[in-house]
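>> Question from a student workshop board

For tomorrow's exercise we were told to take the sequence and the ligand below, predict the bound structure, and bring the output to class. My setup keeps failing. Could a helper post the expected result so I can at least see what it should look like? The ligand is DQA.
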Amino acid sequence: MSETEPGAEPLPILLLNGPNLNTLGVRQPEVYGAATLDDVVALAERTAAELGFGLRAAQTNHEGQMIDWLHEARGQISGIVINPAAWTHTSVALADALVIPDVPIMEVHISNVHKREAFRHHSYVSPLASGVIAGFGIRGYEFAIRQLADVIG
Ligand code: DQA
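>> Workshop helper replied:
Here is what the output should look like for this input. Compare the format with yours to find the bug.
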């Protein structure tokens, strides 16, 4: 049975976290909170499972690695939840790669980037995203997955 037929298992959601997010819980807890990346992944897995989706989660500090994962994801996933971290504000290459899988994208920021330095106010990812969530702590990942599941249908 093909994955697009009614009743078929949906393709998994891809959760991507960008640079320095492996240090969640240690890095600037006054900005990013006490939760760790493992907590984020566990929350995302629980939420996706509740909605009938599998989850693939990955974090990297290497931009080319993230771009390679996006190339490999084409045809393999039903949507993307991404916290691009600092690449949000800098990377045309990441933005170009994000459209390659051709699936809905949700952009998540743990902190409210709009309350912070001006360089964090611009995002190369937001114009590609179905939704943007910022400032809700790690609960933003849960909200993003719920909304993504709705968008996927
Ligand atoms: C972040 C905000 C970015 O500006 C920053 O570079 C990060 C994390 C957030 O989750 O709030 O690394 O994406």
